[in-house]
Specification:
By secondary structure, this protein is of the alpha+beta class. The chain is 20% helix and 35% strand. The protein contains four helices and twelve strands; from the N terminus they run αααββββββββββββα. The strands form two sheets. It has a six-stranded antiparallel barrel with strand order 1-2-3-6-5-4. A six-stranded antiparallel beta barrel has the order 7-8-9-12-11-10.
């Protein structure tokens, strides 16, 4: 009987030893898999921006829109800059040059770097079909914590002011980063937060400029200076 029990236990142990490891779909929920997929596909096209200004350093986020080193960000991040440092997802840093800006209108700017190799670019979607309640993701560099992912929903669409409001956490350093849909497409460029207590807290009200406005800015720059888009 004892030998039988030993054999039975050995068989049970062997059975579990050779079971396949849980797959990706079994470990994470459906929503988690979306978040992971979007982050892993998009984060290589996100950069950290540090502009040297008279008051110190102005930090922000940028989206690589051209493999030759053209980066979209928020113009206010670069306001009064002396030098610009751009850090890629692999930690490599380059000196950046601001080649276009539109702070008075849409708060966008383009930075150009000269990378050693072709860069991963972000996918600009459209903002015409953004709806209140849809799930969104934001990637940015808040307080120097590079390529931080936050999630939330579209809380409000303000067509009069050209703003997408979201409760996805957006903090100082996130300006210029993407607001993404669940396909990993950019639907807005994160710009600001509503903060009545002078940056003492984040109360969950952030704003992004619709990506269709960013695309028009990029197209206008391309028409006026097509050489910027030649690798």
């Amino acid at each position: 009987m004892k030998n039988f029990m030993k054999i039975a236990l050995a068989l049970v142990f062997s059975f579990f030893m050779f079971l396949p490891a849980p797959g990706f779909a079994e470990i994470y929920s459906f929503d988690e898999r979306i978040n992971i997929r979007v982050y892993e596909s998009v984060s290589p096209s996100i950069v950290a921006i540090d502009a040297d200004i008279s008051e110190g350093v102005s930090s922000g986020t940028g989206c690589i829109i051209d493999s030759g080193g053209l980066i979209l960000t928020s113009s206010h991040v670069l306001d009064g800059f002396k030098t610009i440092k751009v850090t890629l997802s692999d930690g490599t840093s380059y000196s950046g040059k601001m080649v276009a800006d539109n702070i008075d209108n849409s708060d966008f700017a383009l930075i150009k770097i000269k990378p050693d190799s072709s860069l991963r670019t972000i996918n600009l979607g459209n903002s015409s079909n953004v709806r209140v309640g849809q799930k969104v993701l934001a990637i940015g560099n808040p307080f120097g914590f590079n390529r931080t992912l936050t999630t939330g929903i579209v809380s409000r669409v303000d067509k009069k002011r050209n703003k997408i409001q979201t409760d996805a956490a957006i903090n100082p350093g996130s300006s210029g980063g993407p607001l993404l849909n669940q396909k990993g497409e950019v639907i807005g460029i994160n710009q600001s937060i509503y903060n009545p207590d002078n940056n003492k807290s984040n109360i969950g009200i952030g704003f992004a400029v619709p990506v269709d406005i960013a695309k028009k800015f990029i197209e206008d720059v391309k028409k006026s200076d097509p050489a910027l888009f030649i690798n």
